[in-house]
Amino acid sequence: MMTIETENGRQLDALLAELHEMLPDSSTQDVAAFADAHPGYRRQILAFAAAWLVMPSGVEGEGVSDEQPSSGVVAALDRFWAKGATPVSDPFAALDYAALERIAAECRIDASILRKLERRLIDAMTIPGKLLAWLAHSLGSDIASLFGFLCGAPVSSGADYYAPSGPKATGKINFADAVRSSTLTGEQKDFWLREAGS
């Protein structure tokens, strides 16, 4: 007799397999829509997508067998199945300007990129895994929670609320475009553009 837990595990396995197939060509909105379509597995779906983004680029191509998975695959699978105890919350909420400046420096980005990340103006699927990992560490967050936050709807600036036309729905931009328009040095821009695959 199949238990509910076994059936739920099989359903989650099928969903994650489907998600794995769609991730290379997906945007943040695609991942968020997929997670929203399966609310009972939203946390696991976002954790899987976040772990997929930070997985070393060579892991999938290692010819991994069931008998001896690589340490990279084992670590990634551990992250996929880790259960988060807290819902997605704003990891930037309690930070002052000095803390934001420190985090930007630790993550090798400028304040304008960090502000865009804080306001969820950058498509999370275009953010390099290295930056996600560094940012999560600097914020004292886990990658899945940070990724879940970054997948949320963009936040209008305070000035938009007082504009005669009211707040506008802002679209998300590509991480590479945020880097190109930043005040980073040419060397720093080259580093992040390489990481972003641009």
Structure description:
The protein is mainly α and 198 residues long. The chain has helices spanning 4-22, 28-37, 42-54, 71-81, 97-106, 111-118, 129-139, 143-150, 158-162, 175-180, 186-195.
Q: How would you summarize the topology of this molecule?
A:
Blueprint: H1 4-22, H2 28-37, H3 42-54, H4 71-81, H5 97-106, H6 111-118, H7 129-139, H8 143-150, H9 158-162, H10 175-180, H11 186-195
Helix pairs in contact: 1-3, 2-3, 3-4, 3-7, 3-8, 7-8
Radius of gyration (Å): 18 Å
Q: Structural class of the secondary elements?
A: mainly alpha
Tell me the count of domains. Answer: 2
First CA to last CA: what distance? 51 Å
Structure summary, number of beta strands? 0
Bulk shape: globular
Supply database-style keywords:
single chain; 198 residues; mainly alpha; globular
Give a quick rundown of the structure:
By secondary structure, the chain is mainly α. It has eleven helices and no strands. It has two domains: 4-81, no CATH class; 97-195, no CATH class.
